[in-house]
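To assess whether the prediction recovers the assembly geometry, we first specified each molecular entity separately, as shown.
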Amino acid sequence: MRADALTWALRRVGERTLSWIERVGFAARFSLAVLAHSPAALRRIQLTMREIYFAGVLSLVIIMVSGLFVGMVLALQGYEVLTRYGANESLGVLVALSLVRELGPVVAGLLFASRAGSAITAEIGLMKTTEQLSAMEMMAVDPLARVVAPRFFGGIISMPLLTALFSTLGVFGAYLVGVKLIGIDAGAFWGNMQSAVDFRRDIANGIIKSVVFGIAVSLIAVFEGYNARPTAEGVSTATTRTVVASSLSILALDFVLTVFMFRGIGV
Amino acid sequence: MNRSAIDLWVGIFVVIGLAAIAFLSLKVGNLTSVSSAPGYHLDAAFDNIGGLKLRAPVKAAGVVVGRVEKITLDPQSYQALVSMRVDQGYQFSKDTIASILTSGLLGEVYVGLDSGGDTQMLADNGRIAKTQSAMVLEKLIGQFMFDKAASGTTAPMANDAPKAPPKPSAQTGTAIVGGAK
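The predicted structure of the complete assembly is given in tokenized form:
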């Protein structure tokens, strides 16, 4: 009896491990298949344009409004702390560095995952449920090239642009609060910012981060959609998993990238 | 949503996205003034560079004329070798004094260049012979306390004690002018 329970437990562990490995292998093969189909998808650029519209243009409002408010709140809170040390002229530096290096890519990535990633998963998952993907295969149209790859590239192209807009609006929001509302000298605000922010070290690294996050979110979204169980419940589970998995991977990747980008460089 | 409308919106999106990147690069990151201008290198050896960091500004009369590019320790003389990149437009005489200064009490550390009266100018990879080290606050306080103690307890010693505060005198002896011709 006890031996039975032990065997059962071991079997469960083995089963979990095997299914996990299978899933990782499937995800890797899926990624390679998407990459292999990308030339065909990019040749029909109109499909990708459509996805840039759905993933990028329709996310503009949420990204820009969030950026503006994040910048304004950062300015208010930063001013509160910096005044204690008599360093309120450095407000521009604080806001610009935190937005360009971290908050821009990460928050824009999280918003993009919940706004566009979930939509992509739900769309592909529903196409699978209603057997549209199978129908395409019957007509000798590869759904990877026709449906998946354009969404993947639409996400990758949209993400850096959305991040740049987020950071820009954030800096503008901080300018509104810091200079117009609180009354910090505009020259000090921009001047300190410009002397502290470096193009290659801060801005280029921020853009690299956003591209990496774009790849991660888009890949997870299309994978979960394509891999969803073809039921209403399956689609809803897949959508949830997209948001959770891409948010976690954005935060984890951000840590890894930050370690490599900013380790051992002065200030 | 027809095709031309989608194209239009994507076009607008891409243009304002690229404009945002340009804004970040130019207005926030000040890409134009960094390293794009041609420059030349100057070296200087300091006894102590204090809190000087890479990419710290090099200023003459308060105007930023360059950046610190490399800081190394000379294994023979145990001096800090600071390599600076100065904008091509600014020339400095051979008897220029380089000093490590701090803007304000807690501000950033920078290299100050005071040009002298020599008619010959420093060339590329020239060595600034006269340098003045950073003022280290702890040493200053220690000096002050030592002087105070010496003058307070034993009156006659007071005349022997006065050591000059951290030598502002240029140390011409050690650094050799190299490549400045």
